[in-house]
Amino acid sequence: MAVTSDILRSYVAPGAVMRSILARGPGEERALAYLAGACLLIFVAQWPRLSRQAHYDDSVPFQALIWGALMAWLFIAPLLFYGLAGLVQLAARALGRPGRGLALRIALFWSLLAASPMWLLYGALTGFLGPVALTHVAGVAMLAAFLVIWAIMTRIAMLEPAGGSA
Q1: What is the pTM of this model?
Q2: Whole-number average pLDDT of the chain
Q3: 72 within a domain of the structure (yes/no)
């Protein structure tokens, strides 16, 4: 199934999406592709906000803000998300839940990719409206969607027999 269809389905049936991803025989390259796609979309989502920031405060030029966001989202964030996935795996083992590393990484990275349309909406609202109540509501909805999808997919990753062991 197409990635975009799976992203939309993740809001309705995240468990079914995780099961189908695991049934496809996930590999580390797929997990990395999910993470790279999510980080790229989140980087793009920053552009309207950064443009607004550069317009109202010219102390830092727009190009510098974009380069900073590029460095943060395409080089540093993936490392941090791999670290977070490792911590989740250690926590699962400490709690007696033998979560498989690859399946847990896919759960985290896919959840981030599934929430990326919400990031795009949040970025557009922040860029056009600024810090108003609607942007805060969109930010909370984005965070809630990510956390709910991640929690459900992590549960499936720990229970399903399919998936990687790394």
Answers
A1: 0.88
A2: 89
A3: yes
